[in-house]
Amino acid sequence: MNIARNPLLSLRLPVWRTRFVLMLIVAGFIGLAVRALYLQGLQRDFLQAEGESRYGRTLQMSAHRGMITDRHGEPLAVSTPVESVWISPSTTAEVAPAQRKALAKLLGIGEAELGRKIDAHDRDFAWLKRQLPPEQAEKVRQLAVPGVFIQREYRRYYPAGDVTSHILGYTDLDDIGTEGVELAYQSWLAGKPGSRRVIKDRKGRVIEDVESVRAPQQGRDLALSIDLKLQYLAYRELKNAVTLNKAKAASIVVLDVQTGEVLALANVPTYNPNSRGQYDTQKARNRAVVDLFEPGSTMKPFTVAAALDLDRIKPTSVMPTASGAIRVRNHTIRDAHPAAENLNVAQVIQHSSNVGTAHIAERLAPKEMWSVLSASGFGTVPRLGFPGETGGRLRSHDRWTNLDQATMSFGHGVSVSLMQLARAYTIFCSDGEVLPVSLVKRTEPVVGVPVISARTSQQMRDMLQLVTQKGGTAPLAQVVGYSVGGKTGTAHKVENGGYSAHRYVASFVGFAPVSNPRLIVAVMVDEPDPKRHFGGQVAAPVVSAVLTGALRMLAVPPDLPIPRSSTFEEIEGVPEDV
Amino acid sequence: MIRLNLVLLVVLVGCALGTVTGQHRARTLFVELEQEQRGARQLDEEWTQLQLEQSTWAMHTRIETVAASKLGMQVPPTERIQMIEPPAESVRP
User: Fold this and answer.
1) Which residues on B lie below 8 Å from A159 (Cβ)?
2) What residues pair up with A78 in beta bridges, in sequence order?
3) Is some CB atom of chain A closer than 8 A to the CB atom of B72?
């Protein structure tokens, strides 16, 4: 039976009703199509962004700061991860009192302070505690306080602590170098954090990499020229000398003569870069590079070298020093220990005679003396690349009076840093060339700038060796088995425009072995005990101790016969092919 | 005609299921990769911490005190060191 044909069901409906329904349906479809067009076409970008934000995330990728090592790869500054806790107060609802208490206890901050930070609802961001050790941060995470987040950061550690603090400097809380090598090589060491877009699933796992917005750039490592073993040795000896001489401060620089690299550089007093908060310019200053002093007699060899190089004198030329004084322009220059007879040039160096050096300076025109001093690096920044490095003061020769020239010949009226002084001595050690110094390990051979002839340099070495021998000013600088050359310096400190009577700067610059120099050690002691203040007494023993250890560590063959001790014979009984 | 359509439908469903499983497997593998990478990073960090620890233990001052006090060692004076020149033929230029 056909339902449609059932007369009972056949209704006579007006035609408009059918049309009306049809129109409604068509209108409905048109509405849908318009809506679809609107969403797909006009609102498409907005909706896609909204959709993606439901599952897409941009992840920050942290980059750590490069490691600083010594020349053998021993770590000197290392970044390790720590966790920092921050809060977003504006999005945080109430934090329960119990949770506040627990959080304050974990972070080690006062409850009142914590409360103030949590209740500052107008702010979006506040650090609660920075640089927590990972275990402690994990406990904070377990507390699950709403609105409290943990962020990974890096903190810098310095394993050698106060021994290397002046060279390395330190970084601030944001891991940006603010002092020393950390500052000088900031762009090399710093890492650049990157980010990438990923898709996360419901459980928060990353399931797909969409794109890498910016690849993180890890910081590069930096190998310094420092030899940590030597650095320890230099620091220890320097510290002992400061205690022994009741000095105010002291610095030491050890240079490799062959490469111009700085093998050790230490200052006392120092500080521990691992415990922050204590900042004292007295302790934080890298005196060897930043501070200036009047070098005194350690300058004499340069005047003598200038005169020797121009053939104005010979090592055997005799200077009229017997009077013990010389008058220059109404001033009398005297010797601390007047010689009984006239000294020759070698003896002038050996006994450190001011009068003798002033006589030698008289044979030079101001420009001739100035050019050797200037070429040796006095008055110019040594370009070590260290922040705050100073170039000292060397006045231009056209304004020198006779008196200026005479006093400058024995190191007064000029100021230098210890680094400059050590560097200048390379002209006596590398056949008359001054070498550029470096705090970073060198990979290429170094090119020096000639200042004096190789012959003059050789003659100077022989004369400077006399200083550490019997009758010289620094027999305490001797090293068993090695010939040592060098020059002492003892200067009154400059104070209120004049010279202080009882404050001294004692210095010694030594090199060894004289036959084929390998190391230069420069030591400066600031305000040693006035009773015992000569460079030969205060600074020379430090140089001797450092050279003894350093030459052994570097396996430099001795150039002098070594006195055999009786106990050594027993060891010699061992068969030779062991 | 209908039969062909049915076959194509089966193939289509098969492909769709394949895509789904493929995608799922790719994601699980990716999660694994992520985990391994995180592990690598953690090991890296542990390594720097160990390096730090090692250099703290190997501090020269510490070694010196331990060697001198516990082991009774001392630095030999120069006169007790014998320098051995390498034989001429083994010296490299």
Assistant:
1) 52, 55-56, 59
2) A157
3) no
| Cβ-nearest to B48 among A74, A80, A552 | A80
**Chain A partners of B82 at a C-beta cutoff of 8 Å?**
568, 571-572
Q: What superfamily would CATH give domain A228-273+281-553?
A: DD-peptidase/beta-lactamase superfamily (3.40.710.10)
User: Is the Cβ–Cβ distance between A67 and B36 less than 8 Å?
Assistant: no
ipTM above 0.85, yes or no: no
User: Which residues, including other chains, have CB under 8 Å from residue A490's CB and lie 6 or more apart?
Assistant: A296, A297, A336, A504, A505, A506, A507, A533, A534, A535
3-state secondary structure A229-281: HHHHHHHHHHHHHHHHCCCCEEEEEEEECCCCEEEEEEEECCCCCCCCCCCCH
Q: Specify the pLDDT at position A2.
A: 59
Cβ separation of A159 and B60 shorter than 8 Å? no
Q: State both tokens at A358.
A: 């002033």
Establish if B42 touches chain A: CB-CB under 8 angstroms. Answer: no
DSSP A296-337: GGGGHHHHHHHHHHTTS--TT-EE--TTSEEEETTEEEE-SS
Sign of dihedral through CA atoms A486, A488, A493, A499? negative
d(CA A539, CA A531): 14
Q: Which of A81, A558, A562 sits opposite B45 (nearest CB)?
A: A81
Distance of CA A227 to the CA centre of its chain: 14
Nearest residue in A to B29, CA atom? A207
Q: How far is B54 from chain A (nearest CA, A)?
A: 9
Pairs of CB atoms within 8 A across A/B: 69
**What are the residue ranges of helices labelled H in A366-473?**
366-375, 402-409, 418-424, 426-429, 454-467
For residue A107, give the nearest of A148, A156, A157 by alpha carbon: A148
Q: Which CATH number fits domain A59-109+126-133+147-189+199-223: 3.40.50.300, 3.90.1310.10, 3.30.450.20, 3.10.20.70?
A: 3.90.1310.10
CA distance B56 to chain A (A): 6
Provide the whole-model pTM.
0.80
Angle at A139 between CA A133 and CA B47, to 5 degrees: 35
Mutation for testing the B interface, residue in A57, A562, A564, A566 having most B CBs under 10 Å:
A562
Interchain contact, A80 vs B49, CB within 8 Å: yes
State residue B39's pLDDT score.
92
Residue of A nearest to B55 (CA): A159
In chain A, what are the domain boundaries?
59-109+126-133+147-189+199-223, 228-273+281-553
Nearest CA in chain A to B37: A206
Tell me whether residues A557 and B85 touch, CB distance under 8 A: yes
> If residue A19 lies in a helix (H) or strand (E), which one and from where to where?
helix A15-37
- Looking at chain A, which residue has its C-alpha nearest residue B61? A232
Residues A487-541 have pLDDT tens digits of 999 888 887 777 888 888 999 999 989 989 999 999 999 999 888 888 888 999 9
Q: Report the C-alpha gap between B37 and A548 in whole angstroms.
A: 50
Q: Which residue numbers in chain A have pLDDT < 70?
A: 1-5, 7-10, 91-93, 276-279, 564-578
